[in-house]
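Researcher: Structure prediction, please.
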Amino acid sequence: MRPEELSRELRTGRGDHLRRRRWLVGLQLVGVAAMAPITLYQMGIIRHLPEPPLPLLDADRVDAADEAYAILATPDAVLGILNYGATMALAAAGGEGRATRQPWLPLALAAKVAIDAANAGRLTVEQWTKHRAFCSWCLLGAAASFASLPLVVAEAREAWRSLR
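Model: Predicted structure follows.
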C-alpha cells in the first residue's frame, strides 16, 4: 500500500475494524495520560501525586515502591508510556484490509492487548497485596487496557480465518 493510500484510509476510512482501531488508539492515549503524572512523580519533578480523597488510594506509596524502579533501572511509568506507544503503533499499522493482506498485524495486536490486560490485572492485584493501597492513575491505565480487549477480537478473528 502506498503512503498516500494509507493516509487516506486511516483518516477517512469507515470500516468497523478501523473504527475499533481508532478507539483503541484513543484508549492507549488515556493510558499515556495516566502515566504522565506518575512519571513526573517518579522522576522527582513533582513531590506528590494528587488523588481523589477516597479511602484506599495512595499513589505516592504505590508509585515510589522499589518494584516501580526494578525493570531496566527505570521508573515503570516511563516504560508504561513506551508500552502504550507500541500498542498504538500496532493499531495504526496497515490499512483497512490488513486482516486479509497482513493478518499478522491484527494477531500481534490482539496478543499484545491480551498480555497488557493480564499485566494490568497483575499490577492492580499487586498494589493491594503489597501496599494495601491503590493508585488512581494506575487504575485509569488498567481500565484503558481492559477496555481495549474487546476492540481487537473481531479483526483478529478475521485475520485468523484468512490464515486458515
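Model: The chain has a mean pLDDT of 97.
Researcher: Thanks, that helps.
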